[in-house]
Every structure is written in C-alpha cells, then in structure tokens.
Amino acid sequence: MAAPISKQLRGYCKQCQHYFLRTRISTKNYCLGDQRFYVSVPLKRTDISSNFHRVIRKYGLKTGPDFSSFLQIEKTKSVNIKLNQRDEFAATPYLSLDALSGRKRKVFFDVYGCQMNVSDTEIAWAILQGNGFEKAKSVTEADVVLVMTCAIREGAEQKVWNRLEYLTALKKKRVSLKSKPFMKIGILGCMAERLKTKILEREQLVDIVVGPDAYRDLPRLLAITDTGQTAINVLLSLDETYADVRPVSLSRNTKSAFVSIMRGCDNMCSYCIVPFTRGRERSRSITSILDEVKQLSDKGVKEVTLLGQNVNSYRDKSGGQQYSVGQLQLPQPDTSRGFITVYKPKLGGIRFAELLDKVADIDPEMRVRFTSPHPKDFPDEVLSVIQERSNVCKQLHLPAQSGNSCVLDLMRRGYTREAYIDLVHHIRSIIPGKLPHKLDIIFANYF
Q1: Nearby residues of 82 by Cβ (< 8 Å), 6 or more positions away
Q2: Environment class of residue 215 by beta-carbon count within 10 Å: exposed (0-12), middle (13-18) or buried (19+)?
Q3: pTM for the model
Q4: Residues near 312 by Cβ (< 8 Å), separated by ≥ 6?
Q5: Of 86, 111, 113, 253, which residue is most buried, by most CB within 10 angstroms?
Q6: 245 or 330: whose pLDDT is higher?
Q7: pLDDT of 431-445, one tens digit each?
Q8: Lowest mean pLDDT: which of 242-246, 318-322, 429-433?
Q9: Closest residue by Cα to residue 278 from 297, 294, 265, 291
Q10: C-alpha to C-alpha distance for 258 and 123, rounded to whole angstroms
Q11: pLDDT tens digits for 187-201?
C-alpha cells in the first residue's frame, strides 16, 4: 500500500510545477506532470509535516484529481490504439488512452502449471499485444515480466517464490541502466487469486497481482505502476469467458492449439482449491468456439485440445434457455449412471456432446482432444460421438482420485468405487479397444 501523499511529497518541478513522489526503485524524483524523472527543489521537512495544504499554496502545486475528475473523461488527443477490452476499462476517467498504451515495451511470460495456464497466457498476450506491447525473446531484455502461476500444490507455489527472488535481483540490476525503463514484475493466475494482497506485502517482490478473471485489466494496472505504485485486481466473475478475445500463440508455426470452452467449477470437492481460484462454472457460446477452431484450421493447425476445469460439463445457455432447478443430490438426466452432483441439477442448453460433434465436423483431418473431464459427465451421447468421429482421439482422461468409497464420499466426488468401475466397463463396451482405434483410458489421481 502506498504511503500517504504528504509523506510521499518530496519537491516540485521547475518545469511544470507538479509535485514529485518518492519512488522505492530510484533515488530520483518522479514528476506527475509529464511522467519523467527530474532533479527537484527540495521542500522543508517542517513544511511537509506541519500543514500539507500550506505547502501546496506556498509552492503553487497541483493537488491532483478531485471528485469531478471521476465523473467526466478527460479530453485527450485521439490515439491509434486497439484496447480490446470492455467499455468500462476502455474509458478509465483518471487514465488517458496514451497511458494505457504499451509504448512498445517488451513483455516476457513465465508459465507454470496446467494447460489452462498456457491458454490464459495466450489470452493475456492477445490483450497486451492489442495495446501496443511487444514480445520479449528472453527475460533479460523484458520491460515487463508476467509469471503465470499455479496453486494446486505447495511445491508449485515455492517454485514461483524462488523465481520471484531471481527476477527481483534482475530488476535491481536494471535500475543502474538509465537507458532502459524499470522492469515491472507481475503475478497472474491461481496463486494471485489465492494469496491476493499477501503477495504484495511479502518483501515487495511484485508490482501487479492479477487474478484469472482480470486479464482485461492488465493495461490499466501496468499504467498505474508507472508512478511507482503497486496494483491488484483479483475479482472473480460470474460471466467472464474471454469469448471475444482471440488468443495469440506464444510459439510460432505450432501445429497444435488449446481452445478454452469453459471456466471455473461448481463441483466443490472437499480437497480442491479450483472453485476458489477460478470461480463459478460458466461456458463460452458455441458460436465463438466454432469460429476460433475454424480460424485455427485455416492456419494449418492439425490438433486442438478443448480445455476446461470440468470440460465435459459444458453447457451453453447463451440461447436464452433457463436453468431447471431440482432437488439436491438427485442425478441429472445427462450424467453418467450411478453418479450424482453436489449442486442443484441443471437442465437445458447445448451440451458437450453437441459441441464435440460440431468441432470434429469442421475439419475431418484435424485431431480433437479434450481435458480435464469429470467422470460424472460421460453420458452415452458423449461416448457415441467419440466412437463415431474418427478424428476425435480415442483417449479418455478419467480421474479416479481414490479406490475407496468412504474416501470418495469424504472427498465429495459424487460416486462410489463400484460406480466408477461400472463406468469404465460401459465406456469400453461402447468404444471397443480394437485397432486402429484403440481406447486409451488414463486413470489419474490428484489427491
């Protein structure tokens, strides 16, 4: 948290009569007038401590924005900039469009964790690229380093802390290089959502903290850090899917791609942090997904992987259908036999089977995979599409978690050991394990 303005005040600028702020990254003073570092005329300590307003009057300093500044947008020169954001961020009253521009600063992404983090990185890069940022080839030449984090295990977070210490040392070296702008360090993803302000408080290692649903806000948060402040946005959303953002791959000439179709999870397993770091379950519209897959096919991509925290529970309600609420702990008509949900059953909408069939139909020569599914969401319709479509890979990721029914109950998984085994036999009966389409089932355990 920044110090009070009276304690930050250090002097005034001879050029534009704006006041200076103390900065923890430089011994120089930062002028808020034209956003540059100058040598200032020092103010007396007694003037600062006795009466701040008196200092303002004495030196003719500007006091900053008032209430009216937040009600009307400052008239600025038109800037050729593609915001690629929601309207509320495109018109931030206290930041001009020029301040939101990346001004060709170079960004480097350091990615940890699952495939979803890779997809989120491509979304974040698409937003920044549309705002005038450029991609750095290495961390040493980067002006902004964004670390995409994972919080599923303690070891994953420890790797990030170790990385932050290295980046902080690199940042201090950059301070001595006057020809380069100061490096900004940001934490993105699940770890940012879990720890929130604790990351900013720990040894002041980072400048921005951004949760999974706040990537649209990255240009504004980076603009705030230009004045030496830290910035954070970890608000979770009930409807954010980034459906209108076309991810930009970090790897050139790649033949495979990830397509995020839904975000969040409603299962609330007793051991899992995902609902608290990724939010409630929501799905992208099927139109936006098919358009993205079609574009990838036109670019020569030969394999797409549909992504989601609970990918096969996909349910597109954008057509206007309403949820049909039933009783708790009752099975859904479109869940696997012997499986129940821990939330109120939902009916209607476009389900995963229809989406998978339409995606496979776009390009018969393009392989289609999906991850990570939940065993409860494998109705016969999904299995039939996998069996009938030759380009849908005959591989299922089927999390087991435990082979003990009592443990599964404590984990709130919604099924027993017997129901899981019956599902495996049922899958093999619909999709026979015969060449050339041999079924490969991965029995994962995350507990």
Answers
A1: 130, 131
A2: buried
A3: 0.74
A4: 352, 370, 373, 374, 377, 378, 382
A5: 113
A6: 245
A7: 876 434 455 666 555
A8: 318-322
A9: 265
A10: 11
A11: 999 999 999 888 888
